[in-house]
Design a protein that fits this description.
With about 160 residues, the protein is an alpha+beta fold. The protein has 3 helices and 6 strands. About 30% of the residues lie in helices and about 15% in strands.
Length: about 160
């Protein structure tokens, strides 16, 4: 093999089997055909292993072609994860934290699930709270102190000569 970084591309399912990946928060199912894994040499931990084994894993998720997502869900994913989605409509997640390809594969897949779950989950509504009286009093005291300090900096005479 010539070249420093060789990579291989294989469309495979989740963690090695042929099962769908299910997002826990939303129940959306991702078919194995919508995921593609690429492997490359990693610069992370691993000693001499780094120089000869493709441990860095990139998961590509086909957002546009995924049959498990509705058009509305695709829009949510595009809106919140747009910076990770390429021109080809595929979402990219990389992992090179671990020494083995299988561990990086699991980590990348878990991260993909986290990202998609967060993108598809409805935002929690903000509950209004009252400002505590002590905080309001402290803010007004600080304003009076600051105002007094600025008053002292003005030149005498009051008309700003």
């Amino acid at each position: 093999m010539t070249g420093h970084h060789q990579s291989s591309v294989r469309p495979i399912a989740g963690s090695g089997g042929g099962d769908d990946v299910v997002l826990p928060a939303t129940g959306v199912r991702i078919a194995p055909r919508d995921l593609t894994f690429t492997f490359a040499r990693s610069g992370g931990p691993g000693g001499q292993n780094v120089n000869k084994v493709n441990t860095r894993v990139t998961v590509w998720f086909d957002v546009e072609g995924c049959g498990g997502l509705t058009d509305g869900q695709r829009g949510l994913v595009r809106r919140s994860l747009g910076t990770r989605i390429g021109a080809d409509g595929r979402l990219r997640v990389v992992s090179s934290r671990h020494r083995t390809q299988s561990a990086n594969r699991r980590a990348a897949l878990n991260r993909l699930v986290e990202l998609l779950d967060a993108a598809l989950s409805p935002p929690t509504p903000r509950t209004r709270t009252r400002v505590p009286p002590r905080t309001r009093q402290h803010r007004l005291t600080d304003k009076r102190t600051r105002s007094g300090t600025k008053q002292l900096r003005r030149p005498p005479g009051g008309d700003g000569e």
